[in-house]
Design goal:
Blueprint lengths: L2 E2 H7 L5 H9 L3 E3 L2 E2 L5 E2 L5 E3 L2 E2 L9 E6 L15 H5 L6 E2 L8 E7 L2 H8 L7 E7 L5 H9 L2 E2 L2 E2 L4 E6 L2 E6 L6 H8 L4 E9 L2 E2 L8 E3 L2 H11 L2
Parallel strand pairs: 9-15
Antiparallel strand pairs: 1-4, 2-3, 2-5, 5-6, 7-9, 7-17, 8-9, 10-14, 10-15, 11-12, 13-14, 15-16
Length: about 230
């Protein structure tokens, strides 16, 4: 039975459906030697390559990891790009990061080959929480934190409300339910702060805890159960 190419790639653990659409639009996916198009129906009889690598026709066993990303490592899905999570950890091609964390930031990323789980965590319509620890280059004013919490105009529109808590003279935590490009950095810049450190410490119920920088750990069965329940999977 034929299925859409983006769904096929997600089921084989290449990336989420939305990330697959980006790869297809960029011409990185070949089907039977031809550059693929969005919405193309495929099945196990087709030869499918992403960035030149053959895609395994079998659905892989599901993998769920927490990773403490160091500063300087990218979350690109291109297996041939330098300084990516995949090259840093020597990951097999069927494991990818859930969402992104910019190269200058550190902290929690979920790694998986479950495209449906990734889609449900990262799609904007679901409003799932992600928590960050932020350090800035000057003392933080409470009125500025209130502005972040209430919503700010960046990239031409208002941000959603956020939970913001001051935890030190130049440190605060912020919980977002959206993930605009470099959102926290843009919010701080608009208020006149430079960020000296930005670390993600939680994604929904999954916490970074004391996981060492650059290390991974499997999600526990309890974490995965609660996560799946929250995502209605």
């Amino acid at each position: 039975m034929k299925t859409r190419l983006n769904k096929y790639l997600a089921e084989r653990g290449i990336c989420s459906r939305r990330q697959a659409d980006v790869l297809i639009a960029d011409g990185a996916v070949l089907v039977n030697g031809e550059v693929a198009t969005l919405g193309l129906p495929v099945d196990e009889t087709d030869e499918i390559r992403v960035h030149g690598d053959m895609i395994n026709r079998m659905r892989p066993k599901k993998v769920y990891l927490a990773f403490n990303k160091p500063v300087g490592i990218m979350t690109s899905v291109d297996p041939h790009a330098p300084d990516t999570i995949r090259t840093f950890l020597n990951l097999p091609n069927h494991i990818f990061s859930v969402g992104r964390l910019d190269v200058a930031s550190s902290g929690l990323l979920i790694l998986t080959n479950d495209g449906d789980l990734s889609e449900h965590i990262t799609h904007p319509r679901y409003d799932h929480e992600k928590e960050y620890l932020v350090s800035v280059d000057r003392p933080v004013l409470r009125e500025d934190l209130r502005e972040m919490a209430d919503g700010m105009m960046i990239l031409g529109s208002m941000t959603k409300s956020a939970q913001v808590k001051k935890i030190g003279d130049q440190r605060f935590t912020i919980v977002l339910t959206e993930g605009r490009n470099r959102q926290i950095r843009r919010m701080c810049e608009a208020l006149g702060y430079g960020i000296t450190s930005l670390k993600r410490i939680r994604v929904m119920n999954i916490e970074l805890g004391d996981l060492p920088i650059g290390e991974t750990r499997p999600l526990t069965s309890k974490e995965l159960h609660v996560l799946r329940q929250s995502l209605s999977l």
